[in-house]
């Protein structure tokens, strides 16, 4: 483990973004401790030692580059193009973190300018973008926005000198091997194929009719809760699959079905087996799952 | 001579171009260089997809965009002859989470932007502690997330209500967290208990406060900010909520306001391409935001400040920080009176039946946010967004400056002018989208 006295230098740059990843990061419960472990040369909101103009001169490098937003080669920050900025800092850095789905895969801002914008190492699922082929060096923390604890995990691992294993899309396996479905409080309804009757109910699963991508999305939102307390499905909103390269899909509040069977089945499950299982599960009538859970009004 | 200053530590990036005589600022133009194409992205999509995409216009006020979208869709339903029914429960949950988003914004602005920047002007003894802002904001968003699932970027408001189904468990958890946040505000920010602060009727009452708010108040006076940064002394509030009143104000005199009078035009900046737009009510520029809201809500303290110091930086900054207190109280009331027995959601007719236009207006942290959309069988044919920062931070010609431009003219130097600019709570992502 490297000495605690040595602080890796960090620069946080923004491409085409809504700043949501910056604000998500500010929710990290151990933010002060994490900032203690780095020398923050530049960050768009947090205290730092350089100005954006100084950063844009590309005179020195940094150990860790965090990049938020889609990559548009022509876009300028303080008069320097992203192409130059990313070229310089990513070249110097030991680690590059793509914070959020835009930086990882292009996200919604690839959707707005598909021929121009991309992620750092991928455009959608395709290895494209200025750092393509650098899997391992580029850590993709997809999510719209990035979950603060995922960024905390990656940065703390770097500070501790621990390697971060990633999947084929450059996402840390420790965070993205799970499905968003994992830990969802509606799992029992999922198993017995009971869909939520309508929005605004805590009873029922959102997969069958309401568009939930939980079983198709690599993310640990229900294991590491958002803001420490919740997740979309806990409040009855479907998962929109924001960590996947195809985010944002269309008709996000609906499930595409074929003869009332979801067109896509959970990752890793054979469709045929799934259909058989569904038939059997549906034939059970479980009274407990048809009743309201809490009537405390 | 034209001097360029790059403004950072805002949401995104802005450029200011100054004409000066000696050091004194004689003219300023504002450019927002980045454009993202959010409106076009929505066309051809089902309107409910906008509930997921528009929060991504802005990482710090996405919830306001969500509410503007849902209100616009519901307005289209009404226009098409299928009015949407909302329970009181759904309404108060929506307002509660909006209020919490405003609270997090104001904490961040005070601690991460205003106190450090005021110190840079040479004001001593402010003791800025930026991470306090992050801490308090995270506490506010945690309460928000109990009902909305997450912050930033939740999509829990849908036409007909909200997707959540909270129980007394969440209400009690939320109340506990809110009490902690209020205790933080009382101890660190205000230096006095919330209820007492809310009885203040004159700025003199800030004098004895040994707190961040007390230091801010003294610091603003020390920097002469009670005499600087006046804009038009005309205000507008358009969103309808329990914490403010829709009105157009000349000084403090209220008049009726009607959003159909709102129109936009391209911003003017001779030295750089800017993607900003100017917003006017009728022919005129108006200032929007917490100061406007406090005056239209007839707040005694802010009106007292206004009587003494007009629409100066002092009044503008203090109104925003003070609004944090008003909103904390509002959040407490909303939680206490949350009617959990009602349904969260009443399903409206299928969206495919809706061919109509709709407008949704919300008071976002920085002022009125307007979403306008036209739907054809539930599909977005046209979408346009007018954001609060476009009202305040437009850039126009010398004979007719936008509010922030007018406020900057006459500043002693560029540093002071940029602080005046920041007093509007600058957000470049909202200004351009
Ligand atoms: S709501 Fe979504 S994540 Fe939860 S159990 Fe159903 S499919 Fe899985
Ligand atoms: S639940 Fe799904 S849409 Fe929501 S944050 Fe997680 S991966 Fe993204």
Q: Mind explaining what this structure looks like?
A:
The complex is a heterodimer of chains A (297) and B (433). Chain A has 297 residues and is an alpha/beta fold. Chain A contains ten helices and eleven strands. Chain A has helices at residues 20-25, 31-36, 52-56, 82-92, 101-105, 107-112, 148-160, 173-176, 187-191, 271-283, and strands at residues 9-14, 39-42, 64-68, 76-77, 80-81, 95-99, 122-123, 126-127, 138-141, 257-258, 261-262. In chain A, the strands form four sheets. In chain A, strands 2-1-3-6-9 form a five-stranded parallel sheet. In chain A, strands 4-5 form a two-stranded antiparallel ribbon. In chain A, strands 7-8 form a two-stranded antiparallel sheet. In chain A, a hairpin with a 2-residue loop joins strand 7 and strand 8 (126-127). The radius of gyration of chain A is 21 Å and the shape is elongated. Chain A starts with 8 loop residues before the first strand and ends in a 14-residue tail after the last helix. With 433 residues, chain B is α+β, with helices and mostly antiparallel strands. Chain B is built from 15 helices and 13 strands. In chain B, the strands form five sheets. Chain B has a three-stranded antiparallel sheet. A three-stranded antiparallel sheet of chain B has the order 6-7-8, with helices on one face. In chain B, a hairpin with a 2-residue loop joins strand 11 (356-364) and strand 12 (367-376). The chains are: A alpha/beta (297), B alpha+beta (433). At the A-B interface, helix 1, helix 2, strand 4 and helix 6 of A face strand 1, helix 1, helix 2, helix 4 and helix 5 of B. The complex binds iron/sulfur cluster (SF4) (2 copies). Residues 180-181, 184, 186-187, 190, 205-207, 212, 214-215, 233, 239 of chain A line the site of one iron/sulfur cluster.
């Amino acid at each position: 483990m490297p000495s605690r006295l040595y602080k890796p230098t960090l620069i946080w740059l923004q491409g085409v973004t809504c700043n949501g990843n910056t604000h998500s990061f500010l929710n990290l419960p151990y933010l002060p401790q994490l900032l203690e472990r780095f020398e923050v040369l530049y960050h768009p909101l947090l205290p730092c030692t350089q100005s954006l103009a100084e950063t844009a001169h590309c005179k020195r490098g940094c150990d860790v580059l965090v990049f938020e937003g889609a990559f548009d080669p022509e876009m300028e920050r303080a008069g320097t193009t992203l192409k130059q900025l990313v070229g310089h800092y990513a070249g110097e850095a030991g680690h590059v973190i793509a914070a959020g789905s835009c930086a990882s895969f292009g996200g919604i801002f690839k959707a707005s300018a598909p021929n121009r914008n991309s992620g750092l190492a991928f455009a959608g699922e395709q290895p494209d973008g200025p750092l393509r082929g650098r899997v391992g060096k580029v850590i993709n923390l997809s999510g719209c926005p990035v979950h603060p604890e995922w960024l905390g995990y990656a940065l703390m691992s770097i500070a501790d000198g621990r390697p971060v294993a990633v999947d084929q899309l450059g996402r840390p396996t420790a965070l993205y091997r799970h499905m968003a479905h994992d830990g969802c409080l509606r799992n029992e309804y999922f198993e017995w194929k009971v869909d939520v009757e309508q929005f605004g109910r805590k009873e029922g699963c959102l997969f069958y009719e309401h568009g939930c991508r939980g079983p198709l999305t690599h993310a640990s939102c229900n294991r590491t809760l958002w803001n420490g307390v919740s997740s979309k499905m806990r409040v009855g909103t479907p998962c929109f699959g924001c960590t996947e390269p195809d985010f944002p899909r269309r008709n996000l509040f609906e499930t595409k079905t074929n003869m009332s069977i979801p067109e896509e089945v959970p990752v890793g499950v054979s469709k045929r087996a799934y259909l058989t299982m569904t038939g059997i599960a549906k034939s059970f009538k479980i009274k407990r799952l048809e009743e309201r859970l809490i009537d405390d009004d | 001579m034209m001097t360029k200053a790059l403004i950072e530590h805002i949401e995104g990036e802005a450029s200011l171009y100054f004409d000066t005589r000696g050091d004194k600022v004689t003219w300023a133009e504002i450019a927002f260089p980045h454009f993202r194409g959010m409106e076009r992205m929505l066309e051809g999509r089902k309107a409910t997809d906008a509930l997921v995409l528009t929060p991504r216009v802005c990482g710090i006020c996405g919830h306001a965009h969500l509410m503007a979208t849902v209100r616009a869709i519901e307005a289209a339903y009404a226009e098409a002859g299928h009015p949407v029914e909302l329970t009181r429960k759904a309404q108060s949950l929506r307002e509660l989470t909006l209020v919490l988003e405003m609270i997090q914004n104001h904490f961040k602005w005070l601690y991460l932007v205003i106190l450090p920047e005021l110190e840079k002007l040479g004001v001593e003894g402010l003791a800025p502690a930026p991470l306090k802002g992050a801490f308090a904001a995270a506490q506010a968003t945690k309460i928000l997330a109990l009902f909305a699932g997450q912050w930033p970027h939740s999509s829990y408001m849908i036409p007909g209500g909200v997707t959540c189904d909270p129980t007394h468990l969440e209400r009690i958890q939320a109340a506990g967290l809110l009490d902690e946040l209020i205790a933080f505000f009382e101890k660190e920010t205000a230096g006095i208990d919330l209820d007492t602060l809310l009885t203040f009727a004159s700025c003199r009452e800030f004098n004895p406060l040994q707190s961040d708010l007390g230091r801010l108040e003294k610091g603003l006076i020390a920097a002469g900010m009670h005499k600087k940064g006046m804009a038009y002394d005309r205000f507008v509030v358009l969103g309808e909520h329990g914490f403010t009143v829709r009105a157009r104000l000349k000084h403090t005199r209220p008049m009726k306001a009607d959003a159909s009078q709102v129109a936009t035009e391209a911003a003017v900046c001779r030295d750089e391409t800017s993607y900003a737009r100017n917003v006017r009510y009728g022919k005129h520029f108006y200032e929007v935001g917490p100061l406007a809201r406090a005056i239209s809500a007839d707040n005694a303290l802010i009106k007292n400040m206004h009587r003494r110091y007009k629409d100066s930086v002092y009044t503008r900054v203090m109104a925003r920080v003070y609004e944090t207190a008003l909103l904390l109280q509002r959040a407490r009331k909303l939680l206490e009176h949350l009617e959990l027995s009602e349904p969260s959601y009443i399903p409206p007719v299928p969206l495919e039946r809706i061919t109509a236009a709709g407008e949704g207006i919300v008071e976002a942290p920085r002022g009125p946010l307007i979403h306008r959309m036209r739907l054809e069988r539930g599909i977005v044919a046209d979408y346009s967004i007018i954001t609060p920062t476009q009202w305040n931070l437009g850039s126009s010609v010398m004979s007719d400056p936008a509010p922030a431009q007018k406020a900057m003219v006459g500043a002693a130097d560029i540093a002071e002018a940029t602080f005046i600019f920041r007093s509007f709570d600058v957000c470049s992502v909202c200004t351009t989208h």
